[in-house]
Amino acid sequence: MILSPSMLSADFSVLGEQIKEIEEAGAKWLHIDVMDGIFVPNISFGACVYKCLRKISGLFFDVHLMITEPERYIESFADAGADMITFHVEATEKAEECIDLIHSLGKKAGISLNPGTPVEAVKPYLEKVDMVLVMSVNPGHGGQKYIESVNPKITELRRLCGEDFLIEVDGGIKKDNIKAVLECGANVIVAGSAVFNDDITGSVKGLLEEV
Ligand code: DX5
Ligand code: ZN
Known about the structure:
The chain is α/β, with parallel strands linked by helices. The protein has a single domain (about 1-210), classed as Aldolase class I (TIM Barrel). The protein has helices spanning about 15-25, 45-55, 75-80, 95-105, 150-160, 180-185, 195, 200-210, and strands spanning about 1-5, 30-35, 60-65, 85-90, 110-115, 130-135, 165-170, 190. The structure holds D-xylitol-5-phosphate and zinc ion.
């Protein structure tokens, strides 16, 4: 199992230090939430921010694009140092082209679906992608409550994709519900506020004990 701390909840005035801290605490992935203010109601940061982090971090950069028409920017997100680029199925009419483009740039490709989007929407792409990201909150902000009704979707995706496939779940995951999410079939866990709104080293270590 993999823990992917979301830097959306980090203190951006000391971002580099906090990213080093999660790495030293044992995290292997960093979840990077890019928001455009159109696909979601919030704006976060773009490629130039994590491009700087690339110089100081060996973490696997798990870039979650919450942007409309991601095909416009995939190349720049790849160039900035992403390892995995995940886009939303609801955000583009060119999902297949996006996957091919990400792969042609030598990166892993993920596809994401919102809590209200059925599994059917991603089914046509499951053979091509390296990961599915199931949103367990409506994307846009950290610190929201986990939406339990997504659990059957995680279980269905696990059944469809086999035991080794990467299924990431994102939103509202803390120490007290992480086990239940893993039991549904997730094997990559995003945690933002549960890591950065607390003692960072202690939180990463505590969550890693559960995954
Ligand atoms: C929500 C983002 C999440 C978020 C998770 O739009 O995609 O990655 O930062 O934060 P928590 O763990 O606080 O729900
Ligand atoms: Zn995310």
